[in-house]
C-alpha cells in the first residue's frame, strides 16, 4: 500500500504542477487505500480538484471535511463502502460512480441522491428526472403524510392554543410514532422512507415550536395575510376587459379572451416519444414564408431610399424613427454591461414575413402572432473565451404554427404545425443530454396555447418529442428557470402557475415530467419572470388584477402556495386602490434589480427596484408599495398583451404599441434613488412602422403584440396582430 503524500498526489494529478492548489484531476485507483489514509488536511489543499478516482481500494466510507468544494466527479466503485451519506459534503458533485460496493443498499443510493442537489449521473446513467422527483415530489408527499398524522393523532390531544412547552412534551413521541406508522412506497425503500420521515417530522415540530414562541408577534401578520391572499375574487376576464375597452378591442383580439371558455376540460397527461406532424417546408413558396416582397435588393440589405413596387407589394417611403431627448443625466446610474457597438442605436427594416398564414393564404392578414424569442446560442467548446455569442434564429408563434426564422436571410428554417391549436406562448431552454456516453447540449422549445398542452420541440431536427397536459384551460405564458434547465413555469387561464420538471430525453426521446409546485393566483397570469440572480427563490408575475410574487424555494415542502407579495403602484391609487381596475399585462427584468412593468391604460411604464421593494416589505402583510425609480412615457392604449422586452447588454428597454411603432428606452441614466415626481421621461427613440402595400392596399400600422432582440441587439423582431413579422437589423 502506498501512503498518500503530497508527492503522490502531485504525481497522480493532472495537470502537472508543483502546487496541489492547481490540480484538477487525480487518479488514486487500485492503491489498496483505507479510509484512514485519506487525510483531510492534505486533501483540503486540492481547492480546484474536479475529478477524483478512488476505485478499486479498501475504503469503508469517505471521511468528512475533505474540503473538495469544486469536486464534480467521484469514482468510488469496487470498494467496501458501508455508507455514503458523508458524500453530502460535496454539494457540487454532478457525477458519482459507486457500483460494486456489496454493502451498499438501494436505500443508501436514494439517500445520497437526495443529499446531493446537483447530482445528474449515477453509475453512468442520467438520473436528473428521478432525482428531482425524489427530492421534491416524494418529499412533498411525505410532508403531507406527516402533517396529516400530526393533525389526526396528536393535535387533537393538545389544547386549542398549545404552548411551545406542550408541543415539546409530545415531540419525541410524535417523531417516533411517525417513523413507525407512516408507510409510503415499496418495502425495499422502507429504510429510506423512515429516514426521511424522521427528518421531516423533526423539522415539523421544530417549526411549530418556533411559531408558538413568536405567536404574539405573528398572529396579526397571519390574519393580514389571510385577508390579503384571497381578497381578489374571480371574475370572467372577457367581461372585465370588455367593460374597460369593448369599443377599442378588435374582434380578432378577443379570440384569446374566449379561449379559456372554449377548451374542453381533461386530466393532466404526459406523452413522450411521439409528436405531431411538423412541416419541413421544402416548397419554395412556404420556405420563403409567403414573404411580403419588397424587391430583391431589400431582402438582404437595409431598405432602399426609393423602393419600387414588386409583385403588387411595395414599401411606402416614410421616416423610420423619431428621436427625443431624454431628461438630464443624473449621478449614480445603474452600470451597463459592455457592448461591442460604439455608435448609437440605428435600426433598418430588413424583412417583412407572413409565414403563419392559414392554409398558406397570402391574403391572410388576420392571424394573430403572440410571441417571439431568439434561440439560445450553444457555446462552441472549440473556441475558448469566445465571449457572448448571438444567435440569429428566432422562433415565432401564432395561429396553429411555430416558425423558426433566420433573421439575416429571412428564410423559414423549420415550421411546426399543431392542427386545431392556437398557440399563445413559447420559451427556450438548453438541455444537457448524454449521447454515447458524451455530454451534448440541445436546444428545446416549449410552446403552449388554447389546448392547455405544452409541446416540447427538439428544434435542430424539428421534432415534437413530447407533450405535457399541463392545465385544463389555455396556457397564456411560459418561462424556464435560467439556472435549472428542466424547470418550466406554465401560467394558465385556470388562475394557477405550475412548476414542472420536464426531465431530460434519452436517445429514444423518452422523458419523465413531474409537477413540483402549484402557485395560486387570484387572476390570470400574463407574464412571469424568476427573480435574478437567485432564480429559484422568487417568481414575479404580471396578472389580470395586479402584480404578485411567490416564494418558489423547493427547500420548503408545501406543494401549493399562495401569493407572498402584491406590488402596489401609483396607478392603483389614482383608480381608488381597487385591484380590479387595472391590468398589469407585462413585466421584465432589465438587469438583476431593475424591473419594468406596465398597466393597461396607464400611458407609461414603471421602472422599479426589486431589492429596495423587498426591503420595504412588511412580512405581516402581502401588500407592498413598489419603489419606483423612474416612470417613462408610453402609449395611452387600452389594448392588452403588448409585451415588454429588455436587452441587458445594450441596457435598452423596448415595447410596441397599437399603431405599429416600437418605443425604445436607454436605461443608462436610471438611478437607484426612488423618484417622488410623477413626471414621465420621454423615450430615447420611437421606431416608426414602415407602411407597406400588399395586394394593392396599404397596410396600416398593426398592433405589436411582442418584440424581442438577440443578446447583442443585432436584430430586433416584432410580431403583430396582422400575421406580419418584422425584422430590423442594426446598422
Tags for this entry?
alpha+beta; 43 strands; five-stranded antiparallel β-sheet; single chain; 731 residues
Structural overview:
The structure is a single chain. The chain has 731 residues and is α+β, with helices and mostly antiparallel strands. It has 13 helices and 43 strands. The strands form 9 sheets. The chain has a 7-stranded mixed beta sheet. Strands 8-20-19-18-17 form a 5-stranded antiparallel beta sheet, with no helix packed on it. The relative contact order is 0.10.
| Average pLDDT | 81
Tally of alpha and pi helices: 13
Beta-strand content: 25-35%
Q: How does the major sheet shape up?
A: 7 strands, mixed
Q: Radius of gyration, rounded?
A: 29 Å
Classify the helix fraction into a percent range: 10-25%
State the strand order across the main sheet.
Answer: 1-2-3-4-5-6-7
- Terminal residue distance: 68 Å
Shape type: globular
Uncertain stretches: 220-255, 263-268, 277-337, 381-389, 576-580
Q: How are the elements arranged and paired?
A:
Blueprint: H1 6-12, E1 13-14, E2 25-27, H2 40-43, E3 51-53, E4 73-75, E5 95-97, H3 106-115, E6 121-122, E7 125-126, H4 128-153, H5 164-181, H6 190-213, H7 215-229, H8 237-245, H9 255-262, E8 270-272, E9 278-279, H10 284-287, H11 296-299, E10 314-315, E11 321-323, E12 347-353, E13 369-374, E14 393-398, E15 401-406, E16 412-417, E17 423-435, E18 438-449, E19 453-458, E20 463-469, E21 475-481, E22 484-492, E23 496-501, E24 514-520, E25 525-530, E26 538-543, E27 546-551, E28 560-561, E29 565-568, H12 570-574, E30 584-589, E31 594-599, E32 604-609, H13 610-616, E33 623-625, E34 627-633, E35 644-647, E36 652-656, E37 662-666, E38 685-687, E39 692-694, E40 697-699, E41 704-709, E42 715-720, E43 725-730
Helix pairs in contact: 3-6, 4-6, 5-6
